[in-house]
Amino acid sequence: KVVVLSDRLAATGEVDGTVTIWDLDAYTQTRQFKVDADVMDMEASRDGQVLTVAAGKQVYFYDVNKDFALLNAFPLPISFAEEGGASLHPTESKFVAGGSDTWVRVFDFKTGELLETHKGHHGPVRCLRYSPSGDSFATGSEDGTIRIWQNDSKSAAATSIADTTTSSS
Q1: pTM summary value
Q2: How many C-alpha atoms does 120 have within 13 Å on its Cβ side?
Q3: Separation CA 37–CA 6 (nearest Å)
Q4: Where are the domains of the chain?
Q5: What is the pLDDT of residues 48-102, one digit of tens each?
Q6: Of 19, 30, 65, 143, which sits 20 to 30 A from 4 (CA to CA)?
Q7: Alpha-carbon distance 107 to 168, whole Å?
Q8: 52: Cβ–Cβ under 8 A, 6 or more apart, which residues?
């Protein structure tokens, strides 16, 4: 996985759990650290201050401006073993995660407490991201659907915007 953190920094995540920070001007490694499992997903926060890493059954949050100090790490009831990921809300108050069990969950960023659980896919969640405004998030699944979830109410509505599944007549 690769994520651009700023005009001068990028991060790569490897299947052995290694996260490497790269200086894009000098083409050199500036920092390297390990997480406990294969890196399945990485994201830079909208303001570029936080690096999110989903690996194994955990999600990690690193402070980009403090030499990638670990802000939070939460064990989750989700496996990122083969798919899935996590996305931090633009206000950094919560994050959404999904993986092999087909459920989409929203957690509190400070405590890791489960806030919401959503069902809308019939296959593993492969990817997910918050919108820039944070009013919604999108999920993509192995079942061929992409869903947009509105999170301005407790009963988040999901709209299917793409469905590549086929049915035989």
Answers
A1: 0.88
A2: 26
A3: 25
A4: 37-163
A5: 999 999 999 999 999 999 999 999 999 998 887 678 899 999 999 999 999 888 8
A6: 143
A7: 39
A8: 41, 42, 43, 44, 45, 59, 60, 61, 86, 87, 88, 95
